[in-house]
């Protein structure tokens, strides 16, 4: 095979992997989350009321976990399972330096944040409303992103539905 064909095979495989991850996130859920909520005295299922407990919509949202892109990468390198327990599906405030701004095969805007590894960066998928803001970013620019924690794909920690924090 020539290099161009190999490149397209890689792009297609990466796209399929990303599609599977997104479908899993949409259809799945976080294992153990319902049991934890019930044990904490809250409703076992979203929308289910408990006696003497405020509805989920009236509870104060927990503060975002503040973490640097470098630390996020280090935590996933040290122990992916433990890092998922900390960051996955949690609201994050991630600080870092822009490595690049790109589009994925699904036309999503991706901001890559630098880590201490020259080859692996944090992948920040921008939300639809923040995509235009991301286009004004420059390589090396320091940013703070408000995101939902993802997982690790092909070595890179991922964060989803990101917006630039001012």
Question: What do these coordinates show?
Answer:
- The protein is α/β, with parallel strands linked by helices and 166 residues long.
- It has two domains: 1-39; 62-164, Nucleic acid-binding proteins (OB fold (Dihydrolipoamide Acetyltransferase, E2P), Beta Barrel), CATH 2.40.50.140.
- The chain is built from five helices and six strands; from the N terminus they run ααβααβββαββ.
- The chain has helices at residues 3-27, 33-39, 69-78, 80-87, 131-134; strands spanning 65-68, 91-103, 109-113, 122-126, 142-153, 156-164.
- It has a five-stranded mixed beta barrel.
- β2 and β3 form a beta hairpin.
- It is globular and about 50 Å long.
Keyword list:
OB fold (Dihydrolipoamide Acetyltransferase, E2P); 6 strands; transmembrane; 2 domains; alpha/beta; 29% strand; tRNA_anti-like; membrane; single chain; five-stranded mixed β-barrel; globular; 166 residues
CATH class of the largest domain: Mainly Beta
Spatial arrangement of strands, main beta sheet: 2-3-4-6-5
Question: Per CATH, what is the topology of the largest domain?
Answer: OB fold (Dihydrolipoamide Acetyltransferase, E2P)
State the major sheet. Answer: 5 strands, mixed, barrel
- Topology order in helix (H) and strand (E) letters: HHEHHEEEHEE
Secondary structure: elements and pairs:
Elements: H1 3-27, H2 33-39, E1 65-68, H3 69-78, H4 80-87, E2 91-103, E3 109-113, E4 122-126, H5 131-134, E5 142-153, E6 156-164
Parallel strand pairs: 1-2, 4-6
Antiparallel strand pairs: 2-3, 2-5, 3-4, 5-6
Helix pairs in contact: 3-4
């Amino acid at each position: 095979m020539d290099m161009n064909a190999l490149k397209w095979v890689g792009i297609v495989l990466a796209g399929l992997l990303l599609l599977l991850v997104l479908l899993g996130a949409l259809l799945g859920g976080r294992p153990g989350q319902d049991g934890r909520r019930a044990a904490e005295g809250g409703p076992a299922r979203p929308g289910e009321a408990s006696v003497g407990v405020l509805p989920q919509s009236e509870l104060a949202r927990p503060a975002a976990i503040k973490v640097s892109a470098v630390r996020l990468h280090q935590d996933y390198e040290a122990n992916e399972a433990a890092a998922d327990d900390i960051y996955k599906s949690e609201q994050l405030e991630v600080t870092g330096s822009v490595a690049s701004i790109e589009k994925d095969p699904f036309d999503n805007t991706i901001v890559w944040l630098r880590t201490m590894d020259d080859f692996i960066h944090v992948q920040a998928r921008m939300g639809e409303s923040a995509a235009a803001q991301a286009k004004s970013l420059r390589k090396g620019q320091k940013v703070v992103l408000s995101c939902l924690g993802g997982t690790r794909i092909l070595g890179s920690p991922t964060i989803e539905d990101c917006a630039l924090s001012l």
